[in-house]
Design brief:
alpha+beta; binds calcium ion; binds 1-deoxynojirimycin
Length: about 700
């Protein structure tokens, strides 16, 4: 059901040319107020306030073009309009059943006097929880093909806020967050793998907290046909300025556009409490409605996979002994099996059996196709063809076996960043998938983009990801992209695009210094603001030495086991992996019950307590059921979380199953101690959850049948 209220008002007498500087233009909704003005120098600025508090001081807008006649100099105000919109819409899947889209829009028409005939619109939308704005280039004779050389959007912050940031690497978001004042962004220590990044530049979503109690998130919405926006930090004035990812030509060009066109929305979410930031739907609201007409085939789901066993060095992606590496033209059937290839038919059947026994709909298989002997960093364009299985992976037999057990196999397409190769082969690859019963694919872009060294976050790759979402949708395939640009809410438009990685996932615990215990309390405020993440929770065997003592020495997941359960709720995604091996789960089937039960699609979500970097408690109502699931997590500090159960239906009795850290649990010293208790509760009950250092708790609530 859609409800629309549309009021259009005009500033002044209709659409009028004004002498400048004109009186400031204003829009507001509840506490959020926007002011747009042309300065004495003719340059446009915008400012944002939240009640009496300043969110953004007057800040520059503008773009320069390669032809020197962009919109970066003095401009003329050619008119403006406002309109109010209040509607609700229903997402195909999500955290809530319906979403209200309520805003006041201000459109500002600008002319470029130095290039007569060139016009630019800046469109602002003011919501109760922030502001979005974008640059629009209407169809016009004097602006057809043009190259954006730079965007000059600024966010002048009034003070030295606390920031949760990762450095400005155009090819990766896989960093642990640093928490520092903006003035310290330059100087905060950067770990070794971050050397590629410019230390004065940070990525979005950028989470900020002001000393006067505001929580502010800066990001973008609907990133299409344009590079991602990074932020240069002025550590003295606390001004952030947009930095677009350049292309590979070395000319500094950022985006090649044709009018009519527009940029993505620049977004500023603001609230006076942390939970409200997590509840914001501003970014989704700024994205276009679904372009996938029929969506019944799109299924939020859990999956297991032949995956973690490779990351913990128990199995390999490659089939052959790597001393046998042969390049193009290799007859794979002649190569010798290395004896530990993970994607072999018998092993895949083991995962299918486990999935079927525990109502897990999907099984991912990595390393099924030829090419893994020399896939990474080899700079070759032709590595994978996406249709040739290794000799020990019987694609027909597995199709038959999975179908017989009611399980769906999930395809893996590691492109090794040879994107031109992938694009040439996508049609055939998706046909092959459909012929063999696959309707979901995990793609990956490890390494430098081949052939030209484009950046993962530049316009060329942004278009590839969107194109892949469109192509997969046309074949009724769901997609999960790893190493892609971070999301910007496009899953509203392409609901088959279930998830992305685009951040530092659980896997880092297997082969690096890992993720600090606070990591998962920050991700919802940063990376997840743009969309769901394939974080791969659910690791039960926390200490990884057990799998391979020689190669995993000292490696461990930086949480307790109970916290791994809580992540299924606190880390929203319609696609959730149960990432550990069946043999790890078989030892703890009582705890696995939570993973089996927890939903992946929701009618309602409440953030009960949150503070970035410290803790998060979320409760969600399963789609179409009176069942609730709660996750509560903490950083390295133990905490007690009192929970009022007033979200439950009044008068109904529920069985609560509480999966908590056990006595003496501690992410380092005793991570696998957990305790499961049951109790009958109502909406009037309270729970006191005791979270261990690096710990968490998960609770399921199901109605007690009368
Ligand atoms: C990195 C991905 O994040 C991971 O999930 C995958 O297993 C490897 N690349 C190999 O493609
Ligand atoms: Ca902390």
């Amino acid at each position: 059901m859609k409800r629309i209220l549309l009021v259009v008002g005009l500033f002044g007498a209709g659409y009028c040319a004004q002498a400048q500087p004109a009186a400031p233009l204003k829009a507001r909704l509840d506490k959020v107020a926007l002011t747009v003005a042309l300065g004495a120098d003719g340059r446009p600025t915008y400012a944002v306030a939240y009640g009496p508090k300043t969110v953004v001081q007057p800040s520059r807008l503008g773009l320069s073009f390669a032809d020197g006649k962009g919109f970066d100099g003095p401009l003329v105000l050619a008119g403006s309009e406002t309109k109010d919109v209040d509607e609700t819409w229903t997402p195909v899947w999500g955290e809530v059943k319906t979403i209200r889209n309520h805003y006041q829009q201000l459109t500002v028409h600008l002319r470029q006097p130095a290039a007569p005939g060139r016009t630019l619109d800046v469109v602002f939308r003011v919501f109760a929880d922030g502001v979005g704005f974008r640059y629009e280039f209407p169809r016009q004779p004097r602006l057809q093909y043009f190259t954006v050389q730079d965007e000059h959007t600024e966010f002048n912050l009034p003070a030295n806020h606390k920031a949760f940031w990762i450095p400005g690497d155009y090819d990766s978001n896989e960093y642990a967050y640093t928490t520092s004042r903006l003035s310290e962004v330059n100087t905060a220590p950067i770990e070794a793998i971050q050397q590629k990044a410019d230390p004065k530049r940070v990525q979005t979503p950028l989470m900020l907290k002001s000393d006067d109690g505001l929580y502010i998130n800066i990001h973008e919405a609907a990133l299409v046909n344009y590079p991602a926006m990074f932020l240069n930090v002025d550590t003295k004035t606390f001004s952030l300025s947009s930095q677009l990812v350049p292309d590979a030509t070395g000319t500094g060009a950022k985006a090649y556009l044709q009018a009519p066109e527009h940029t993505p929305w620049r977004t500023i979410v603001v609230a006076d409490n942390a939970p409200a930031v997590l509840a914001s739907k501003l970014i989704l609201n700024l994205n276009e409605p679904s372009k996938v007409a029929e969506t019944g085939w799109i299924q939020p789901q859990k999956f297991v996979g032949v995956w973690w066993e490779m990351h913990v060095n128990r199995a390999s992606w490659n089939y052959a002994d790597t001393s046998n590496i042969k390049l193009a033209g290799t007859n794979w059937k002649t190569l010798k099996n290395n004896g530990h290839h993970g994607a072999n038919t018998a092993n895949v059947k083991r995962y299918i059996d486990f999935a079927a026994a525990h109502h897990i709909p999907g099984v991912l298989v990595e390393g099924w196709n030829v090419g893994w002997e020399d896939w990474a960093n080899n700079w070759k364009e032709e590595v994978f063809d996406f249709v040739t299985p290794y000799p020990d992976f019987d694609v027909d037999e597995l199709q038959r076996y999975a179908a017989g057990k009611g399980v769906k196999l999930i395809m893996h397409h590691e492109t090794s960043s040879s994107v031109t190769n992938y694009e040439r082969r996508q049609d055939a690859a998706y046909r092959f998938m459909k012929q063999h019963g696959y309707d979901a694919v995990k793609t990956g872009y490890v390494g430098r983009i081949i052939p030209r060294g484009e950046h993962h976050d530049g316009q060329w790759m942004v278009n590839h990801y969107v194109h892949t979402a469109q192509l997969t949708a046309a074949s009724r395939i769901m997609v999960d992209m790893h190493e892609s640009v971070r999301p910007t809410g496009l899953h509203r438009t392409y609901p088959n695009w279930l998830a992305n990685e685009a951040a530092r996932g659980n896997e880092f615990n297997a082969w690096s210094s890992g993720n600090p215990p606070e990591h998962e309390t920050i991700l919802p405020f940063t990376r997840l603001m743009g969309g769901p993440m394939d974080y791969t929770p659910g690791i039960f065997q926390i200490k990884l030495d057990d799998w391979n003592p020689a190669r995993n020495q000292g490696k461990q997941v930086h949480t307790t086991l109970a916290k791994q359960l809580a992540l299924y709720v606190t880390m929203y995604s319609p696609l959730q992996m149960a990432a550990d091996l069946p043999e790890a789960y078989n030892k703890h089937l009582d705890a696995f019950q939570f993973i089996e039960d927890v939903a992946v699609d929701w009618d309602d979500t409440r953030i009960l307590a949150a503070e970035p970097g410290d803790y998060l408690t979320t409760v969600r109502k399963a789609k179409g059921k009176d069942e609730w699931y709660l996750g509560s997590i903490t950083d390295e500090n133990a905490r007690q979380q009192p929970i009022k159960l007033d979200f439950l239906t009044p008068g109904q009795r529920y069985e609560a199953i509480i999966y908590a850290d056990g006595p003496g649990a501690d992410w380092q010293k005793n991570p696998m101690a957990y305790r499961i208790t049951k109790q009958v509760v109502t909406s009037k009950s309270m729970l006191k959850l005791q979270l261990a250092p690096g710990g968490g708790a998960a609770v399921s609530f199901k109605p007690v049948r009368k």
